[in-house]
Amino acid sequence: MSDIPLGVLTGDIVGSRSIKDHTRLDQALEDALGLLESQYGACVDRYRGDGFQVALRSPAQAMTAAVLTRAALLRHSPSRRETWDARIAVAVGLGHLPETGRFASANGEVYVRSGQALDALSEGDTRFALSLPEPDDTLILLTRFADATLQGWTHNAAEVMYWRLQHAETQKALAERLGRAQSTIHQRLHAARWPLIEEYLAHVGQHIIAIMEAPR
Fold it and tell me: Which fold has domain 4-213?
């Protein structure tokens, strides 16, 4: 079986040992991973309680999937002081999809790089990493800015972003979906820096496509 282009996410929950409501957190993570399965046709798996791994056939969608995962968790945060978030290391490259949905059967350098990048994240406060077949300092820097933005999201901002990332809707449509005033939706999208996040995801997606299509 030949290798295929993949986007791989390896992640874990930030500060999981200090979270009180593990049942609700576990359900939030299950829902987030289930969304990636339905939205992107992803293969997903969990390990060590709060750890998870995701493989997508479309590497260009990997960072959008990572942002959506964090939004899905952050929206369930109990309070401003207790936020539920994840460290996620995204790698793009070649590999095999797990045959049974269990990642023990998966192989390829893309899985190794994603796991190594997550290990590096555990040593600091950064919660996003992007590993490419060849390092790109500009994309890495932009990803650090995106991460800093997400770390400032409230659960209200994450809620709006959670739906906006899934549906290319107008603010009016989002307001109707969430039962909120359109002005409230506008304020929350602004607070989440949606236009910048949208541009970042489009930019990184285009670069990943170019990287994966380049002759080897």
Answer: Alpha-Beta Plaits (3.30.70)
